[in-house]
Amino acid sequence: MDTNKLEQIVSEVISKLNMEMQEGTCQSSQPKIPVEASGRHIHLSKEDAMTLFGTDELTVDRELSQPGQYLYKEKVMLIGPKGVMKGIAVLGPCRGKTQVELSSTDARSIGLKGIVRDSGDLDGTESVMVSAGGKVISVASGVIVARRHIHMTPEDAVCLSVKDREIVSVRVTGNRPLIFEDVLIRVSEKFRLSMHIDYDEANAVGLNASSFAEITL
Ligand SMILES: [Zn+2]
Q: N- or C-end of the chain: fewer Cβ atoms within 10 A?
């Protein structure tokens, strides 16, 4: 047997073993993905936090399910063209740009259209005024209806046979089960496996405590 052929066989065997090892780390071939409904909230830039609250170190209320993400005790009010919305949750840590995440229903209720975007993709999105403690800032573009997405680690991505930024369809169980198309896969070591939908989507599927998601394609 020539050396090339031998090397080829060895590399095939090794890659097969690697695949089996990776599959071995998966709890099952189709893990049940937890589903969480995200309420309306805002991420503030340090600059905007300083203007509204006089500090960029806000008060942590509790940690969120994604590691390193917090809910602050501070709240803001949104002022749109046709209405205001009080008690908006502020999530931390501060980001490079201020981003407001609403459901379509929320957006319409204050006179906005509600543009579906991925987090951080803010060019050309709608504007809103944000107020807290008598201070007001204008966010020129930054209001989005977050595209539904699944956070996961690189290990989860191997288990689920998906890649970062891939778009998939997902079946979500609930009182009214649904298949959601156009779901973004987001992979990072910093993430914990969870599908994020907004309250419009959660209500549509009748989300309950035993709901879970599974990728269908
Ligand atoms: Zn998310």
A: N
DSSP string, 58-105: --EEEE-SSTT-EEEEEEEEEEETTEEEEEEEEEEEEESS-EEE--HH
CA of 216 to the centre of ligand 1 (A): 20
Among positive and negative, which fits the CA dihedral 52, 58, 60, 63? Answer: positive
Cα of 149 vs centre of ligand 1, distance in Å, is 6
- Predicted local distance difference test score (pLDDT) of residue 31: 79
Average pLDDT over residues 41-61: 97
What's the whole-model pTM score?
0.85
- Our CA angle for 206, 43, 60, nearest 5°, is 90
Average pLDDT over residues 178-191: 97
CA of 204 to the centre of ligand 1 (A): 18
Separation of CA 134 and ligand 1 centre (Å): 30
